[in-house]
Amino acid sequence: MSPFLGSVFWLLVTLGVLVTFHEFGHYWVARRCGVRVLRFSVGFGRPLWRRVAKDGTEYQIAAIPLGGYVKMLDAREGDVPESERAEEFTGKSVWKRIAIVAAGPVFNLVFTIVAFWAMYMVGRPDVAPIIAATPGSPAAVAGIHPGDRLLAVDGTAVSTWSDATDVLFNGLLGNEPVPVHVRGTDGSERNVVLPVQNLAFGDAGKRFRELGLDLESPPAIIDQVVPGDPAALAGLHPGDRITTVNGQAVDDFSGFTKLVQAQAATSPKLALGIERDGKASTLDVTARMASEQGQPTRWLVGIAGKPLEVATLRYGPVRAFTESLHSTWSGATSTLGMIGKMLSGQASAKNISGVIGIAQVANSAANQGLGWFLNFLALVSLSLAILNLLPIPVLDGGHLLYYLIELVKGSPVSERTMIAGQYVGLALLFTLMGLAFFNDIQRMLVS
């Protein structure tokens, strides 16, 4: 499956699962509070599939998959016969209305915990945080040495590269130096302070690249040769050390990969200098343009280097549940912290991602296996829960704000105020969506 089709497919799977679960929360609590549900829709617009149940509820899947809704019997949308008033939404107590509205985000939180729990039991393949820094980069100047193992980032213990980057990206949202604790190749431990405050203001991904920190690349020694691919046809063998690409020196396997992309863009025919059994030689290899595991197309020659040290997260049911609660709490505080930093101007709005970014990450996570896709679903579900709880009219948080005001003043918010709030909420929501879409397109153009 091509990266584009894979991104579209896994985006639909993600939204289908999370939207259904969110709306089911509203539906389930509404029914238990005695409110009649007229329609349960996954998606907006023209129905693609529709079925009316015996209780009169209409279930449908609509053409626009960017959300969903539960339509309840509501006096604000038309006259309700006296015989049906007992099942009408606005006639219920304010506490029941709060419960119905809050149920969607709460169900997203429940889904987050369950998805993290399943992820930790299935296992999430990862690599150890053994790092290096680009020569002359801020990370190298700060004191990061090749082969350093990250033990903690900003006071948080880390055991995998993904854990380390999660904490580091959170630090890159602000402008405070980020302390890390590392163990060197000689076994000694030391503290290093990464000068985040000196990086250009912008999105965390761009700042991370500027920082110059990355996994340590294995040496440019071939570990595997794919049969039938250009390298095999040219006569390359496992154990060969690659020394040059078109005469340019190769330091490690990452450097070799970058040189292949740069040189093949000019001409796919490459001259690879190798060392075999102490003897140097040069072999001609013609790179091919292809996609691997749903990734964007790039130049490939069909070889792999030594694998990185594996660090898989996998626990038993009890430990997995404890870790899922911790991950949910950590993710929530990080997300709220990011929102706070953006509102205060400490973090760039360029960190906001939209549906294109979500689709790309969904495809990448799915191609990495079930554990990674469960991790992705958990994070998106948590984001949906937090987003929907923001006090913005048209979102669940906006309705909750109205009901809290009603509790204080003893009467519902006026219809005029609610209509004005709807316009403000829609304006904010469309502005946010437009900004996210712009950021996604800009990232695609830059990359």
**How many individual helices?**
12
The number of distinct β-strands equals 16
Relative helix content: 40-55%
Low-confidence stretches: none
Tell me the span between the first and last alpha carbons: 21 Å
Q: Radius of gyration over alpha carbons?
A: 27 Å
Rough outline: elongated
Beta fraction: 15-25%
Q: Would you list the SSEs in sequence order as H and E?
A: HEEHEHEEHEEHEEHEEHEEEEEHHHHH
Query: Main sheet, how many strands, which sense, barrel?
Result: 6 strands, antiparallel
Count structural domains. Answer: 3
Structural class: alpha+beta
Rounded mean pLDDT is 90
Structure description:
The structure is a single chain. By secondary structure, the chain is of the alpha+beta class. It has 3 domains: 1-11 and 92-124 and 315-447, no CATH class; 126-218, Pdz3 Domain (Roll); 224-300, PDZ domain (Pdz3 Domain, Roll). It contains 12 helices and 16 strands. The chain has helices spanning 3-32, 94-122, 138-142, 161-172, 204-211, 230-234, 253-264, 317-344, 355-367, 370-389, 396-409, 415-446; strands at 37-52, 58-72, 130-133, 148-153, 156-157, 178-183, 189-194, 213-215, 224-225, 241-245, 248-249, 269-276, 279-286, 288-290, 298-300, 303-304.
